[in-house]
Design brief:
Elements lengths: L15 H9 L3 E4 L6 H13 L8 E2 L11 H7 L6 H6 L2 E5 L23 E5 L10 E4 L6 H12 L5 H14 L10 H12 L4 H9 L4 H12 L2 E3 L4 E6 L1 H6 L12 H4 L6 E9 L2 E8 L6 H6 L3 E2 L3 E7 L2 H20 L1
Parallel strand pairs: 1-2, 1-3, 3-4, 4-5, 7-8
Antiparallel strand pairs: 6-7, 8-9, 9-11, 10-11
Amino acid sequence: MPNTIEPASFGEPIPANLVETLETFRRPVVIGHVRPDADCLGSMFAVALTWPAEGGPAKVSLPDGSLSRRLAFMADWTDLPLATAEDFVAADGFIAVDTAQKPRCNVDRSLGGGWADGRPVINIDHHTSNTNFGAVNWVDAQAGSAAELVYRVIRASERPIDSLVASLLYAGIHSDTVGFSLPTTRSSALHAAADLVDCGARVAEIGEHLCRSQSKPEFDLNRVIYDNSRVVADGRVAYSTASYAEITGAGCTSADIDDQISIPRSLQGIEIAVLFTEGRPGKTRLNLRGESGINVLDLATALGGGGHATAAGAIIDGTIEQAVDRVIPLVINRLDARQD
């Protein structure tokens, strides 16, 4: 039997045993990363709908507080059953998507780190920092989204793609490529999106939900991000902040922190953008973006995080002020070192 089931020209080939292992699961639980974005949710839901469990849909892991209000429409579309602790015990396998490390899997804290308990985990991801924590690993760091990878697995398995699955995957590809505008947008992503449109993806509805449906609290949080934006290092670095008090004062929670990094990132001429958000008191989340191919992954990794070469993040102990004082000098030093 060949060790791949599609040509390498599409990126990293799908391991042959990935589809084979998927087909053996009868009681799977599908898992994404903490604070799931549209790509993560679309990938999770598409997998759960395409490979149902015995007696009904596959269960998805979404602990309380995981879902942002902006992306609740995706859960509403699918109405999939959420995995309980009992479902984790009964599961015969797990499918993790868009998640670089096992500790970042979005499972209830009460389950602890041993939730897999020796059972197979299929790991489908596109993060450079993925640790290959699965029994079967498919990591294509060149792919612009996990949804593109899930699309390829479905096509390789010759399972059907209906309008709902097409819409979920299209939303994931559109979101993680920022409307097909990032350097990670390969021709394969565009081909996948075109095929998904032919399969009935709800393009206009997705665009409205992702781009033109802010709630008033989300709008107020964006106002905070705009007001707190600063430019330093001769215009090369832009950053913004939102403290726990500011996030909750806007009527939001940590689940609503999603793509606000786009605000400081949108400033002309910047080379690195950073967003500092305090989703929990004393815990500051960093989102880092590098422009023109500038690598921010090594900085995120040094701070205990991970991600992609030009889009990475971490969570560090300390207040917003402490995080800014610690991280911004590192960012500036990173840029200065590039010029030496």
